[in-house]
Amino acid sequence: MAKQEIEYRAPATNWQTRGFWEGCGRGELVLQRCGDCGTVQHKPRGICASCLSSALEHFVACGRGRVYTYTVTHQNNMPGFRDACPYVLAYVDLEEGPRLMTQVAGCEPDAVEIGMAVKADFVDTGDGLGVPRFVPA
Ligand SMILES: [Zn+2]
Question: What is residue 25's three-state secondary structure?
Answer without folding.
Answer: helix
